[in-house]
DNA sequence: CGTGTAATTGAATGCAGTCAAACGAAGTGG
DNA sequence: CCACTTCGTTTGACTGCATTCAATTACACG
C-alpha cells in the first residue's frame, strides 16, 4: 500500500504468515521442540543441495534466498524477514534444498524439526490450506520476478528493486535502507559496477539520494515511471 | 533418465500427475461435471489477469504457459502436455491468473469447474498433499529456470532448451521434435534471429541436425557440455 | 594508523538485440 | 495451374547496453 502507482502486491517479496492457523496447544508443542539459533550477518542458514532438517521461522533479522551461479555469483530471488518461514517448499516436496539461505543482518531463527512440522501438518488442515495458498501465491510473485529479469533492462530492474527494497525494509517516508552493493546487484541481476552507475544516474536525476550508504527515495513518482511496468 | 550427464530432473518441465489420488467415485463425479474443449493450435486457453473458472486437464496436445512482456513478446516459462493440469496455482491462491496459456498443437482439455475441484479437494486430503508437493516441486524447477535465465548466455540457454524440449516431446533416439522459432526463442528468452544463429552454429559443430524444421540431437555429450551447467 | 574490504569511476570489449532484406514454404483466389 | 500473398525462417550489417578489467577512492575495523 506504499504507493498506488506501483503494482505492489504482485511484485513484492512480502508473504502472508502461514503460522496464524496454529492453536495455543500447537504453538506450545512447537516451542518445546524448537532450537533457537542466533546467527551473524553473512552466515549461511542452509546450503543448496543439502537435505532439509526442518523448518526455519525467522524471529529477528533479514534473510536472503539465493542460488549459486557458475562463477560463484549469487542469484538472489527472494528476501524474507521477521515472521516468515523458510525452507517449507523443500520440506513439502521432500527434495534437497533448491537454493541457499543466508543472513543479511544478524538473525534469530527457530528451527522446527521436520517431524514436528509434519505432525502438525497432519492434523491441522487449515494450516495445510494456508501453506498451499502461500506457495501458490509465491509462485505468482516468482513468475513476475522471472519476467522482469527477462524483459527489463538493468536501469528498469534497478528502479524496481529500490521500490521493493524500501517496502521490504519497512522504512517510512524520509527513511533510507541499507544494503551492500554486492547483495543489491545480485537481486537486480547485474554486476556491481553496472548497479553503481545506475544509482549514480538516479541520484543525478533527483529520484534517490544516497547518504552514509543508505538509499532514500526522493521522487517516487519518477522512480515508478522509470520502472516501465505494466 | 534421458541422459545421466544432464541434471535432468531439476531442470525439466515434466511434473508428476496429481490426479492419481482420485477414487473411482471422484473420477465419475468429475467426468459428469466436465466440459470437453477442443482447441486449435495457437488458441488461448486462459488469459493473464482474468479470473479462473476452473481447472484444466490436458487430455491431448501440448500447451505453453507464458507471461506477456512490454513489447508483446511472450515469456514462456513452462510447457505442459497430456496428463498434466494447468491453472491450479491460481485456483488455490484465489488470485487472477498470473500468466496465460495457449496451445502449441491442437489440444483437447477438460474444464473442471472450480466448485467441483474444491469439493473434491475438501474431502481428499491425499490429493491436497499431492498438490502441495507438486507446487513445491515446480517451485524448485522454477528457481532453476530463473537462474539459468540470469546466469547463462544465449548459446548455453539454447543448448539447455534443446535437451529439455527433446525430453518434453518425448521423442526417442533418432527422432526429432518440431517447434516454431518464435516459440523456441521465447522459451530461451532471446530474439528469433539470435536463436537461429545459435542453431546454425550447433548444426555446423555437428551437435544437432535440422531436417524439415525438426531438430535432431546428433551429439548429446557435446550438447550437454555446451550447456555449461553445474 | 595501516590494512583490507567496499564503492566508485574509466576504458575497452563483445554479446545480443534491432533493423532490413532475401528466401522458402504454404495457402488463396483468379 | 500459376500469380500473388502471407507467414516463417534465415542471413547480413549495425548499434548499444552491459560486462569485464583495471585503477582509484572511501570506508570500516583491528
Fold and architecture overview:
2 copies of one chain form a homodimer. With 230 residues, the first copy, chain A, is of the alpha+beta class. Chain A has helices at residues 8-11, 24-32, 88-93, 114-123, 125-151, 154-169, 181-188, 192-204, 220-227, and strands at residues 35-39, 44-46, 54-60, 62-68, 74-81, 85-86, 100-103, 107-113, 177-178, 208-211, 214-217. Chain A is built from 9 helices and 11 strands. In chain A, a hairpin with a 2-residue loop joins β10 and β11 (214-217). In chain A, α6 crosses α9 (220-227) and α7 (181-188) crosses α8 (192-204).
> Which structural category fits the helices and strands of chain A?
alpha+beta
Major sheet summary line of chain A:
4 strands, antiparallel
Compute the number of helices of chain A: 9
- The strand order across the widest sheet of chain A is 1-8-3-6
Proportion of residues in extended strands of chain A: 15-25%
Order of helices and strands of chain A: HHEEEEEEHEEHHHEHHEEH
Could you say which overall geometry of chain A the principal axes of the C-alpha atoms support?
A: elongated
Oligomer: homodimer
Low-pLDDT stretches of chain A are 1-5, 7-11
Please tell me the overall pLDDT of chain A. 86
Rg measurement of chain A, Å:
18 Å
| Biggest interchain interface, per-side counts | A-B, 41 and 41 residues
Q: What is the terminal separation of chain A in angstroms?
A: 17 Å
Helical content of chain A (DSSP H or I, runs of 4+): 40-55%
| Total strand segments of chain A | 11
Amino acid at each position: 500500500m506504499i504507493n498506488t502507482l506501483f503494482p505492489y502486491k504482485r511484485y513484492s517479496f512480502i508473504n502472508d504468515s502461514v503460522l496464524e492457523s496454529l492453536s495455543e496447544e500447537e504453538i506450545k508443542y512447537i516451542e518445546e521442540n524448537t532450537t533457537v539459533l542466533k546467527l551473524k550477518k553473512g552466515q549461511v542458514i542452509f546450503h543448496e543441495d543439502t537435505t532439509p532438517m526442518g523448518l526455519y521461522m525467522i524471529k529477528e533479522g533479514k534473510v536472503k534466498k539465493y542460488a549459486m551461479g557458475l562463477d560463484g555469483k549469487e542469484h538472489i530471488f527472494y528476501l524474507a524477514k521477521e515472521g516468515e518461514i523458510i525452507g517449507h517448499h523443500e520440506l513439502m516436496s521432500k527434495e534437497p534444498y533448491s537454493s541457499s539461505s543466508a543472513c543479511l543482518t544478524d538473525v534469530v531463527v527457530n528451527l522446527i524439526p521436520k517431524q514436528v512440522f509434519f505432525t502438525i501438518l497432519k492434523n491441522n488442515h487449515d494450516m495445510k490450506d494456508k501453506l498451499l495458498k502461500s506457495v501458490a501465491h509465491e509462485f505468482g510473485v516468482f513468475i513476475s520476478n522471472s519476467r522482469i529479469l527477462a524483459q527489463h533492462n538493468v536501469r528498469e530492474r534497478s528502479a524496481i528493486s529500490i521500490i521493493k527494497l524500501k517496502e521490504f525494509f519497512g522504512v517510512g517516508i524520509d527513511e533510507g535502507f541499507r544494503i551492500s552493493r554486492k547483495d543489491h546487484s545480485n537481486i537486480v541481476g547485474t554486476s556491481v559496477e553496472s548497479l553503481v552507475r545506475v544509482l549514480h544516474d538516479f541520484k543525478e536525476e533527483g529520484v534517490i539520494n544516497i547518504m552514509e550508504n543508505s538509499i532514500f527515495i526522493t521522487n517516487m513518482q519518477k522512480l515508478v515511471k522509470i520502472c516501465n511496468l505494466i
